[in-house]
Amino acid sequence: MTLGLEMTDLAHALAYGERLFSALREGLTDVAHVKALVERLGPHAPAFPEVRFCKGGVLPIVDEVTNRFLVEEFKADRHAAFRSLRCEGFANLSECYQLGGDRTGFSGSPWNRTKQPLSKCGTRAGSTANPDFCVRHNGDPSLRLVGEVKYSAKTRQSASIIAGVVAELRYYMAILSDPDYGTDWGHDFGFGVIYCAGGDAPRRSRLILDNWESDGIMIASFDHP
Fold first, then answer.
1. Pairing of strands 189-196, 143-152
2. Which of 20, 53, 91, 156 places its Cα 20 to 30 Å from the Cα of 30?
3. What is the DSSP-derived secondary structure letter of residue 105?
4. Contact of 151 with 35, CB cutoff 8 Å
5. Terminal alpha carbon distance of the chain
6. How confident is the model at residue 185 (pLDDT cuts 50, 70, 90)?
7. Coil, strand or helix at 143
8. 146 beta partners
């Protein structure tokens, strides 16, 4: 939730989400390509294939789509678009994908250092919040979203994962912005990416909008047909 900031127009949010999903579908349907990418980036995060998928597969697409959307639709300048992009591990993204052109990289971390009453899993008090990525473009119009990515090397179906991603996005969206702490945290909608890499068939891609009207959450699901 944004506090004291212009709310994202949900028509703009939906248009952005549909454009992002279209680009993800084009880039991630070939499961052999995705598996090879995750394998190739093994040295970057040896114990965390989900991190490698996020930083090598999802974030370059988020980067490119966001830059183009903000420049073309919102008439933002390149610097403003770059400043809006935040992700975990932003400093070494160049190890995971090539920067240049419409891929500017991410300008900082999405981390909210304010201690929360509960963690996103509901088991720890005093946790901070650090989603996988976000876009925080302020102004008129604004675009403020939080994103979460899940990758499973063996799972074939996404049905059992969707509820958890929705819950995590709800958690992040419910946290208020905290200007007194020096952060511009605050998100008006959520975008989840679920990739089930089990099996060899091309992925079935779906933009799930079951929680759009109620929560402002979209889920891009890629699983075995």
1. parallel
2. 91
3. -
4. no
5. 35
6. confident
7. strand
8. 134, 190
Strand partners, 129: 112
Q: What is the C-alpha to C-alpha distance for residues 205 and 195, in angstroms, rounded to an integer? A: 9
Structure tokens at 165: 């991603």
Bridge-based pairing state of the strands 127-129 and 112-116: antiparallel
| Gap between the Cα atoms of 88 and 222, Å rounded | 22
Write 71-79 long-range contacts (CB < 8 A, 24+).
73/12, 73/15, 74/137, 74/139, 74/141, 74/143, 76/137, 76/139, 78/104
Round to whole Å and give the CA distance between 176 and 190. 14
Which helix (H) or strand (E) segment holds residue 37: the answer is helix 31-40
CA dihedral sign, ordered 217, 110, 222, 63: positive
Which structure tokens are listed for 17?
Answer: 């989400």
Pair type for strands 133-137 and 85-87:
antiparallel
CA 100 vs CA 53, 63, 82, 161, 176: distances in Å? 20, 10, 12, 34, 34
Determine if the pTM surpasses 0.70.
yes
Summarize pLDDT for 115-173 with one digit per residue, the tens: 665 546 655 665 677 899 999 999 889 999 999 999 999 999 999 999 999 999 999 99
What are the tens digits of pLDDT across the range 52-68? 999 999 999 999 999 99
Length of the chain as a residue count: 225
CA distances (Å), origin 111, targets 39, 184, 186: 27, 10, 11
Q: 103 near 78, Cβ under 8 Å?
A: no
